[in-house]
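From: lab user (bench 3)
To: helpdesk
Subject: output format question, protein + glycine

Hello, I'm new to running complex predictions and I'm not sure whether the block I got back is the full result or only part of it. Here's what I submitted:
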Amino acid sequence: MAVIHVALAGRAYDVTIEAGLLDDLANRAEPFLRSFGGRAVPFVADKSTHTLYASRVDAALSAAGHSADWFIVEPGESAKSWSVLERLTDWLLTLGVTRSDHVFALGGGVVGDLTGFACAVMKRGCGFVQIPTTLLAQVDSSVGGKTAINTKAGKNLIGAFHQPSAVLIDPLVLNTLPDREMRAGYAEVLKYGLLGDAEFFEWLEANGADVLAREPAALSHAIATSIAAKARIVAEDERETTGVRALLNLGHTFGHALEAETGFSDRLLHGEAVALGMVLAARYSVRRGEMSAADAQRSAAVIAASGLPSEIAALGMECGGARLVDHMRHDKKMEADTLPFLLMKGIGAAYMARDVELADVAEFLDTELNRA
Ligand code: GLY
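Helpdesk reply: Thanks, we reran it on our side. This is the complete output you should expect:
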């Protein structure tokens, strides 16, 4: 078992990683079940996670004298909407949830973001516990308190910082995760190496195949190292105001443009877009003379070796660099007429550049889109 502390004054919490944790949920979650007495404990899941895990959760709770009540959403981004939020908050009010209660989110990033936001506004803030079931949610979205829904204007534009009271991770749930989603989550693991930990990056170069094959020791090490990195960053800059937390957006500005161009669809999953975005950030850093071509090549090679896309030319997008840059102009990080870019001075050395000319980025992307 590994426990990683997220040291936020007044809002500190632990992330627990333990194989088999789901069957021991009542013990691990005991402090967050106490307030319920005989009342049912609210659990939010999507149809897939409910089918896979509800009976185990019900059994674990019932052995400790509790019962769960389930709110089940459709899988996918459509659940992060005003209408589902309204139904969820109405349901929580009907259950009589109080500010000292905890709502449990069992699922991937969509379930965690939706539940977290509902809890941020429920009676001006009630507790919640994240039980992430995808690699992406385990190493990124469940930790750090970013919660949100989507609107017509874009993804995650309505939300709140609301930290969970605990994050409970059972790596064994990843055994049922489709390989493509596993790889997409792995892109965020690689991100921690690329942005600030060259030694971890080297470890991933050597052990990435074992992580993707869910070899227990390698997988737990990758999850724990990623979360420890995120916990340090979040403790330093919870609300992304000093530039430190923004490092977690490495690959996301380029990636967001690719996701927008492909319609935020299954054609390109978020993690796949981030993988491509990190290759582009590395190559753009080479173009600016800040990163060696050899380091950029290593970054692309480790991404390609893990089965993630590493060349935007292979996506078959019918657009030019200027159109991708137009998507970037709608990025929520856009400030007045500039967009801060996360670039690299080497592997493990990401930094924020505020002097990037979008016209130059468009020219660079034209070259990448036509790369042989
Ligand atoms: N996923 C980026 C962050 O949590 O800040």
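A quick orientation on your result: The two ends are 47 Å apart (CA to CA). Let us know if anything else is unclear.
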